[in-house]
Amino acid sequence: MLMMSGTLGACRTTITKHPSLAAAASYIVLAALLLTPALRPGYTVVPADIVNTFAPWYQAVLHHGVASPLTSDAGLQFYPWLRFLGESLRAGHLPQWNPYILGGVPFTPNGYVTIYYPPYLLAGVFNPFFAYTLYVLLDLVIAALGTYAFARALSIRPLAAWIGGLCAFTALHWVHWSLHLNHASAMAWLPAVFAATEWTVVRPGRSSAGVLALAFALWWLGGGFQYTYYGSLALAGYALVQLIRRLRLGRRDALRSVAALAGGVVLGAVLAAPLLLPTARVAGRIVRSHDPVTVLTQSHYALRDLLLLVMPDARGNSVAGVLYRGYPYGWALDTPFVGVVALLLACAGLATLRRRHVALVIGVGLALVLAYAAWPHEVLFRLVPGYNRFRVASRWLAILPVFALPLSALGAQSLLAGAVRARRAIYGAATVAAAVIFGYDGYVASDPASPKRFFAAASAAVLLPLFALVGAVFVWRSRRTLGLALVIGAILFEVGVHTGTWYPFVPTSLAYPRTDFGDRVAARGGRLIRVAPGFVQLPPFVPDVPMVYGIDDAGGQSVLFPADYDRYLRLIQDYGNWVSATNTAPPLTDPRLLQSPLVRVLDVRTAVVDPAVKMPPRYGRIADTGIQAYALHSLGAATVVPIATPVPSAAMWVSIANRRWDPSATAAVIGLPEPVRGGSGTARLVAQSDDTQRFDVIAPRGGLLRVSANYDPGWTAKIDGRPRHVYQADGIFRSVVIPPGRHDVELRYQNPYEHRGQLIALAGLLALIGLFLPWRRLLRKRRSGSSITVV
């Protein structure tokens, strides 16, 4: 204990002399220790173990255990997208188009990864499994360091701010979502953005506005839409409260703060334009555009679940495989728990609150109200633009640690200063917390169906750090170093128990194993489509995992599901609002639908079929491994259509909805200047990459080349090197008019909105550099250098 006390004394001296550097180093070390098993060669933090619970992977591996089903999206969606990004970067270009799902979609935006947030680029340097682990590590460090910075911006002393940042590792909402890459980044950057806002309000100027612009841009570039949206609303409210307080010091000071804030936010939006512009463009072109208010008002926590503030496992634990009394499984990610030590320190902060920190209390209160009540969402739904695009009201809990952790740092500062009110607040809060825990233990013990051993361990995990903090307060007067050691030890204990056990450490040999089934589907080329007895969100050969194997999928999962593609699929089989509710294209439920011309023109060459489905004898089975694969006949990657008719959008959809439509003979095209009357021909795919295709086309009488992939305004074409217009044909396809003869046809994609955003961001980057340049010093030096001295 004496050795530990001496070490802590040395650490305290280092933190005092070089606080920011010491804080960053300590957070990096702690994050690395937590993820050490995944940083070893041959391991990863990617929850790829979920894949092995599905066919055909179930038959390919012996181990089928899953660390936590709640992190399945990370293994099924986020990793495939990150891997795809890494492959494109290593091929020497930034991806513009993803051809693997939903007939092809623009890469930006996609709701999972982005090429404009630097940590994602790790996938182009390292193995994607290792890059994923590094990304999670960086988010943990950014969250902790941002919390430290926010506390410092609030004039909290370095050691106390460091303790507040350390508590970020026990903010379980952030930890639970940390494997969901863009969601985690949106949360991790929140404290830093609030710190920059506070700094800009208090010390408005070019440098503070530049820091705010940079933090704001990185936050929006790396973060998920819902959390950046909620965070922006919270940030606006916080800034308003602090500006009102600033107004008391003088109108001139307040106006300077407003100008600096506005400039920083606008410049940050300019820097994020490569993502924001394409996102604004797709907003009206996706299925999930508006949700009813009931989706939000029915997705908040019940008031009884405030118990989770004290006991994170009061309703079970997904890693332990325990769910108690019908706990809503998906909501287990959205927890208010920030650590019992942080909670008690926050109570000490409340007892010693200053006017400057009132906004923290307001933020904590509003985050809890929004997570636990229905009525505020009815108001926001009607008053705030865009609020109707997001679900799950309990996700407002992502904002809670932003305010609660600096409040904990304030409590730590009061405790370090020996404030009597801080000690009394901790004693009182600890007494209440202990009474709640023991009371709940008694309730659980009276329930014969409860897992008593599990809840005994869960209670101990909370009570031990609680008693350690009480002990620290008790010895504080006589032995401060020992008291500090107990506080830090209690936090590290919570980090180890609650955070360290959350992450899966999966051997890469078990992650997305190669299977004979997958090899046979890949060898067929074209796209796959699924057939199952009913609509399921995770059908056979679960989406979007085929991306990992380079297999094109006629289905897929995406929060940005294209509305036109959804309309096209519903012409094959009307599934109603299934995509709106699940973000996933459902499987076909009748194998006879495989004969639809709408399927053939999609270049679907393989049907992945659930064994419960009886297939007609006309189809040849090519694989059978828990699920079955059947060969289908398609029209190929592209077709030369002899007759094409110019039509408006409505008539085009009517044309392909006609069951007698022959896609090899006719096409309905939007914007075609005149009808095409050609003849038959052939189109052979010569080469392709993510965003380019080359065809060798032979059309003696000319015709229309219809490519079996999604149209987008960013597609351009060249025939024998000469530019040609690309048209939207037959609902979703891109097409080019072909003159008679043999031709080399090249199609290339560049997102026009993303390109405009790049130019805007470049101008913003120059402006940002200008904010940090010491113009006065440079001008003074120039004047002194140009002056002439006469002797």
Structural class: alpha+beta
Looking at the structure, what is the overall shape? Answer: globular
Would you report the number of β strands?
23
Main sheet attributes: strand count, strand direction, barrel closure = 7 strands, mixed
The figure for the number of domains is 3
Helix share bin: 40-55%
> How far is it from the N-terminal to the C-terminal residue, by CA?
73 Å
Q: C-alpha Rg, in Å?
A: 29 Å
What is the strand arrangement across the widest sheet?
Answer: 12-18-22-21-14-13-15
Stretches where pLDDT is under 50 for at least 5 consecutive residues are: 787-791
Q: Helix tally?
A: 28
Q: What does the average pLDDT come to?
A: 90
Task: Report the portion of residues in β strands.
Answer: 5-15%
Protein model, in words:
The protein is α+β, with helices and mostly antiparallel strands and 791 residues long. It is 49% helix and 13% strand. It has three domains: 2-50 and 71-499, no CATH class; 514-631, no CATH class; 638-750, Immunoglobulin-like, CATH 2.60.40. The chain has 28 helices and 23 strands. The strands form six sheets. It has a seven-stranded mixed beta sheet, with helices on one face. The chain has a five-stranded mixed beta sheet with strand order 8-7-9-11-10, covered by helices on one side. Strands 16-17-23-19-20 form a five-stranded antiparallel beta sheet, with no helix packed on it. The longest helix has 26 residues, at 128-153. The termini are far apart. The model is unreliable at 787-791 (pLDDT under 50).
